[in-house]
Design brief:
globular, alpha+beta, 209 residues, 3-stranded antiparallel beta sheet, Nucleoside Triphosphate Pyrophosphohydrolase
């Protein structure tokens, strides 16, 4: 099109069938909110991240970055097997909960699945990634409202940025982002961040039915 004379028809041809995409490339992640039945009660399966990984000590669901040759569901299942040692063939996928867009240009898609407790109990987690696996009854989250604490994200002054080229310079009213962070406390474990948001979202839909 660069060699064509620009007219409105050219522009129309470009955009009439254009499939909108994020302007910034998104990193895609998938997690698996795994549920099991322990002592007659439905529970979430959570793990504590090992000391040697990023964000050590955080409580989370298994999951990770999508590889180029796999679907988001395949990512969730692969990561669950790699981290928790649960065979993919033993997991029943029930569906998806709402996805999350992060301020880090990422999208996180949670899936909801079920695994028999006997299978979970006999699995061998990856010690390099997981330091502990534990369960929390769904009833706890249904009955216990989370603490809510706002976190503020704002721009940082960088000397190499050309502030002199914009009106107001360093005093320009850059946007701030206020994010409500949720916190649950369960038997010495602090469950917060994306994990808490995903749990609350799942519980919301369960209670809505």
């Amino acid at each position: 099109m660069a060699d064509d004379k620009l007219n409105i028809q050219n522009i129309s041809n470009v955009f009439k069938n254009h499939k909108a995409q994020p302007i910034f490339k998104l990193r895609r992640y998938a997690i698996l909110a795994l549920i099991t039945e322990k002592n007659g009660e439905l529970c979430f399966v959570l793990n504590k991240r090992a000391p040697g990984v990023r964000q050590p000590g955080d409580i989370c669901f298994p999951g990770g970055h999508q590889e180029s040759d796999e679907t988001m569901l395949e990512t969730a299942l692969r990561e669950t097997e790699e981290e928790l040692g649960v065979p993919q063939s033993e997991i029943c996928i029930m569906g998806k909960s709402d996805y999350m867009l992060t301020i880090y240009r990422g999208v996180i898609q949670p899936f909801v699945g079920y695994v028999c407790y006997d299978v979970l109990r006999s699995s061998c987690p990856n010690d390099d990634e997981v330091s502990q696996i534990f369960t929390v009854p769904l009833s706890y989250f249904r009955e216990t409202p989370p603490e809510i604490h706002d976190m503020i994200w704002e721009s940082v002054i960088i000397d190499t940025f050309p502030y002199h080229r914009i009106e107001g310079g360093k005093d320009y009213p850059f946007s701030k982002c206020r994010i409500p962070e949720l916190f649950y406390e369960y038997k010495g474990h602090t469950i917060w961040g994306f994990t808490a948001q995903v749990i609350q979202n799942i519980i919301h839909y369960i209670d809505e039915k």
